[in-house]
């Protein structure tokens, strides 16, 4: 039967509603892999995203985070989370009020000018972000160092990449990763160290998986304190103790020397300083190194032999090396190993630092750190300062080094820096020793926060909030881990009154110039191309020379790698193939690296090594991923992972609350069994700030997430803090009273509710607040305390979840302090609140999420018994987030799947489709398969 044709009026309405869709090239705004994305939009909103099949970073692939970018851009969520207009308060006792851009920037220009006049240029500071575009970074750098005359401009890249910068410069002479992604395909050995690549850089890991399939002889070595998904798939796993990387690399070099696996001809022709290092590594015998690192001597020998004997060995590393008080030495020691064995400057070989943020590399290119200048120049070099002064048309660039991140906030705390301008980052979540950071932000005369998301913890401290544009609205360039520059254009107009980060900096600079009486502006820029062209000129003759590039080339020919000097027709895939390095002598330099233990050492009072790291489906402080409910499915709530041995010794069970306490602070977390943990070590995801986990704290001053625990100790060369490790003690938190509320929430108020619940979190000893759901979305609030909360407080929270009125089923046992509230809507669970005994939460939440009718349950909903209904089967944890496949479903399917592990994986992908979309869950699927017995008939 043919469908009826719509009327002419119907066609007209349909045409008005269905705007034409366009697809625009851009990049993912998460990690430094730099994946290309195609954004589908209707001109007003992002409808969908897919990987760009032509982009050389990912060839169409996206991870679970990138593939949900469109969900974070939904208009309903943007309206709740985004900063929409400037806000200003003139005194700390005032609330911020909406203000015009003109009023706000005039206020800032006058305030900065007066402070600089009275206290000098170094009384102000700028704290930037690796999520800014290169053009944003460039104008802020010029604003601080060129106009104001202070080098107090640093970035959150200091927290993730500065040790890699220092390591490259000390050894190779320039901050330039030598390899490229193609080297993964050509390597004989891949050495992954300090990186859970499967989680942190999933698209790089997909490429490693492909390389292993294409070359079965390829060996993968992983060094990591945890048996992560990355480590589990390695040919050789080295479970080193936290912070022992220098000893490991020195020990491997010792073995290579002993077994004649070094390339002496290369060392003599292209390096210097080897004799001193050779004397040092003589002491790093296999026995000693195995004891320091906590690994088997035979495994150490095997790793060194594979690396030294390989035709091409590629190392890939990230925060495990960088975020350390000896991070520069770790980087340098690994590069030493590459230089000594000539595993550099050839296909498939080299030390490859995997960048953490989407444009940390671009920020480094323009001198976005307190000790650097544009074009990879050193602030301490008079000639370099003179070159930039000439380019900018100023008398001089200040000589005095600026404050690095930790130093900057300490200077704010003490009053040395009066005004702090924070751009596109959240130090009230990401910096170590949160007590000091929050004291600094409270003490500052003025805190300016330039931010797209008003929901971050740092916005609470803002005296001035400047609304910035964000992904899909911005246009400019970024540089990824393999030195590849991508140019992209905006897809949507700027939201409400927000402005591009570079626009805000330029307009403020012009107003400041007027107040300071400057005749000629240093900021004549009308758009990003003009800014980029000036940056391009700053690279002329430098190691990252891009004078042969233009916006036109990037648009017409796609992303390009640097260097790309004038006259070139292509960028350079890999560096140092000629054995010439950008040092004074033209030779690479061996650094005499000596192992130093972690700064925060374990002892009888603090007997556990706490390490932090990434979760698979979340990114950084979660200001963006935290708006997407389905990204909480894999790791639903904050937790501290412990080994089975340590949990049994302390009589702990999954879900028990524990005090995790370091010398710097304390935070309560639920404990979870960590199959990847060894005894004496615990792990917490780095993403959990006070936006998601909080409480009253030890003295009622609040607890502030995982970075309440981490150490501000930093590397003397790179100034990068030791965020990866802290010594802690674990004590069971004996809270007799618990509370949980969860329910479906209209998307139009989802993030508003989450934000409104944040003050309530501080009223309990422990509280957490996260999202859940997919097509429908909800909020989960959890709390615990020493005593029952006031009924009025609980009633307030229940009211916020809509748990009120005639549709609510109620049960109260005042004698035992238990209560249960069930909101029914259309015959299904809509929201639940449990107080006292909350043991029914698991099945009630799954019942709510499955949207099963409750008519058959009857009084069971309110019975004191917490047993689930008959025939109720828990889905369990979600493994494949893309396609919503649970662990229970996978286990059930495997019961009837015989064959090899690879065959069973393929069968799972065909039947359940798990692992067939982005592939981020494939390592976990392999783990489940490995632990699941073959069907009886196939065994």
From TrEMBL:
Record keywords: 4Fe-4S, Iron, Iron-sulfur, Metal-binding, Molybdenum, Nitrate assimilation, Oxidoreductase
Presence of the UniProt keyword Cell wall biogenesis/degradation in the record: no
Cofactor: Mo-bis(molybdopterin guanine dinucleotide); [4Fe-4S] cluster
Top-level taxon: Bacteria
InterPro entries: Asp_de-COase-like_dom_sf (IPR009010), BFD-like_2Fe2S-bd_dom (IPR007419), BFD-like_2Fe2S-bd_dom_sf (IPR041854), CT_Nitrate-R-NapA-like (IPR041957), MoPterin_dinucl-bd_dom (IPR006657), Mopterin_OxRdtase (IPR006656), Mopterin_OxRdtase_4Fe-4S_dom (IPR006963), Mopterin_OxRdtase_prok_CS (IPR006655)
CDD domains: MopB_CT_Nitrate-R-NapA-like, MopB_Nitrate-R-NapA-like
Domain 4Fe-4S Mo/W bis-MGD-type, chain residue ranges per copy: 21-77
PROSITE patterns listed in its UniProt record: 4FE4S_MOW_BIS_MGD, MOLYBDOPTERIN_PROK_1, MOLYBDOPTERIN_PROK_2
Protein family according to the UniProt entry: Belongs to the prokaryotic molybdopterin-containing oxidoreductase family. NasA/NapA/NarB subfamily.
Protein name: Molybdopterin-dependent oxidoreductase
Organism, as annotated: Herminiimonas glaciei
């Amino acid at each position: 039967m043919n469908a009826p044709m719509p009327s002419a009026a119907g066609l007209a309405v349909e045409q008005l509603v269905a705007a034409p869709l366009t697809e625009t090239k851009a990049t993912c705004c998460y990690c430094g892999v730099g994946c290309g994305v195609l954004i589908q939009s209707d001109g007003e909103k992002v409808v969908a995203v897919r990987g760009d099949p032509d982009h050389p970073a990912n060839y169409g692939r996206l991870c679970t985070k990138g593939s949900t970018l469109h969900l974070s851009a939904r208009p309903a969520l943007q309206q709740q989370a985004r900063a929409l207009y400037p806000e200003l308060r003139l005194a700390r006792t005032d609330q911020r009020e909406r203000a015009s851009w003109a009023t706000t920037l005039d206020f800032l220009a006058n305030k900065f000018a007066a402070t600089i006049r009275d206290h000098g240029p170094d009384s102000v500071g700028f704290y930037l972000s690796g999520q800014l575009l290169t053009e944003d970074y460039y104008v802020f750098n010029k604003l601080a160092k060129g106009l104001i005359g202070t080098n107090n401009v640093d970035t959150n890249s200091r927290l993730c990449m500065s040790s890699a910068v220092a390591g490259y410069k000390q050894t190779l002479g320039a901050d330039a990763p030598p390899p490229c992604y193609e080297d993964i395909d050509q390597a004989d050995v891949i050495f992954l160290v300090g990186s859970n690549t499967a989680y942190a850089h999933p698209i790089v890991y997909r490429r490693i998986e492909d390389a292993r399939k294409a070359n079965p002889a390829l060996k993968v070595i992983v060094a990591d304190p945890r048996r992560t998904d990355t480590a589990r798939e390695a040919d050789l796993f080295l479970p080193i103790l936290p912070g022992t990387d220098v000893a490991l690399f020195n020990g491997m070099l010792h073995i290579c020397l002993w077994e004649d696996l070094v390339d002496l001809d290369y060392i003599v022709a292209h390096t210097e300083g080897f004799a001193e290092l050779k004397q040092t590594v003589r002491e790093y015998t296999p026995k000693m190194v195995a004891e320091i690192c906590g690994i088997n001597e035979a495994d150490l020998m095997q790793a060194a032999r594979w690396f030294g004997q390989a035709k091409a060995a590629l190392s890939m590393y990230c925060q495990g090396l960088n975020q350390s008080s000896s991070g520069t030495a770790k980087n340098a020691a690994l590069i030493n190993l590459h230089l000594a064995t000539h595993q550099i400057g050839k296909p498939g070989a080299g030390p490859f630092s995997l960048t953490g943020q989407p444009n940390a590399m671009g920020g480094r290119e323009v001198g976005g750190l307190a000790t650097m200048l544009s074009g990879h120049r050193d602030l301490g070099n008079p000639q370099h300062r003179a070159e930039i002064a000439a380019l900018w048309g100023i008398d001089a660039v200040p000589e005095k080094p600026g404050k690095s991140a930790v130093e900057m906030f300490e200077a704010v705390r003490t009053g040395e820096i009066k005004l702090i301008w924070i751009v596109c980052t959240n130090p009230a979540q990401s910096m170590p020793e949160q007590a000091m950071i929050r004291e600094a932000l409270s003490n500052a005369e003025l805190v300016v926060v330039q931010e797209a998301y008003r929901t971050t913890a740092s916005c609470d401290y803002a005296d001035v909030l400047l609304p910035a544009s964000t992904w899909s609205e911005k246009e400019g360039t970024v540089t990824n881990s393999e030195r590849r520059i991508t140019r992209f254009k905006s897809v949507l107009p700027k939201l409400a009154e927000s402005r591009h980060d570079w626009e805000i900096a330029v307009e403020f600079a012009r107003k400041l110039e007027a107040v300071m009486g400057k005749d000629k502006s240093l900021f004549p820029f009308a758009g990003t191309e003009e800014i980029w062209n000036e940056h391009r000129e700053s690279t002329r003759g430098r190691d990252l020379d891009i004078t042969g590039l233009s916006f036109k080339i990037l648009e017409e020919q796609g992303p390009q790698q640097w260097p790309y000097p004038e006259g070139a027709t292509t960028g350079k895939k890999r560096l140092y193939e000629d054995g010439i390095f950008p040092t004074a002598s033209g030779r690479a330099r061996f650094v005499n690296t000596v192992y130093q233990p972690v700064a925060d050492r374990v002892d009888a009072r603090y007997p556990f090594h706490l390490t932090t790291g990434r979760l698979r489906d979340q990114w950084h402080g979660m200001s963006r991923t935290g708006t997407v409910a389905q990204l909480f499915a894999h790791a639903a709530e904050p937790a501290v992972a412990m080994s089975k041995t340590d949990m049994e010794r302390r009589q702990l069970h999954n879900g028990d609350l524990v005090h995790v306490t370091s010398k710097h602070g304390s935070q309560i977390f639920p404990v979870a069994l960590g199959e990847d943990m060894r005894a004496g070590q615990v792990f917490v995801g780095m993403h959990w700030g006070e936006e998601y986990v909080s409480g009253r704290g030890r003295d009622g001053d609040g607890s502030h997430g995982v970075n309440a625990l981490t150490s501000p100790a930093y590397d003397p060369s790179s100034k990068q803090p030791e965020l990866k490790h802290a010594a802690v003690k674990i004590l069971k938190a004996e809270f007799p009273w618990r509370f949980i509320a969860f329910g479906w929430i209209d998307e139009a108020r989802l993030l508003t509710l989450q934000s409104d619940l944040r003050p309530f979190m501080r009223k309990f000893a422990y509280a957490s607040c996260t999202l859940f759901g997919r097509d429908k979305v909800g909020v989960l609030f959890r709390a615990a305390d020493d005593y029952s909360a006031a009924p009025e407080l609980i009633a307030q929270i229940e009211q916020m979840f809509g748990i009120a009125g005639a549709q609510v089923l109620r049960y109260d046992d005042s004698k035992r302090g238990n209560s249960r509230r069930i909101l029914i809507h259309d015959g299904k669970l809509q929201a639940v609140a449990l107080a006292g005994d909350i043991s029914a939460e698991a099945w009630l939440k799954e019942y709510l999420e499955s949207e099963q009718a409750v008519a058959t349950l009857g009084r069971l909903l309110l019975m004191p018994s917490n047993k689930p209904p008959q025939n109720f089967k828990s889905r369990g944890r979600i493994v494949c987030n893309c396609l919503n496949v649970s662990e229970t479903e996978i286990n059930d399917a495997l019961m009837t799947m015989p064959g090899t592990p690879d065959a069973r994986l393929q069968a799972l992908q065909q039947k359940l489709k798990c692992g067939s979309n982005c592939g981020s869950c494939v390592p976990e699927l392999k783990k489940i398969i490995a632990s699941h017995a073959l069907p009886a008939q196939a065994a």
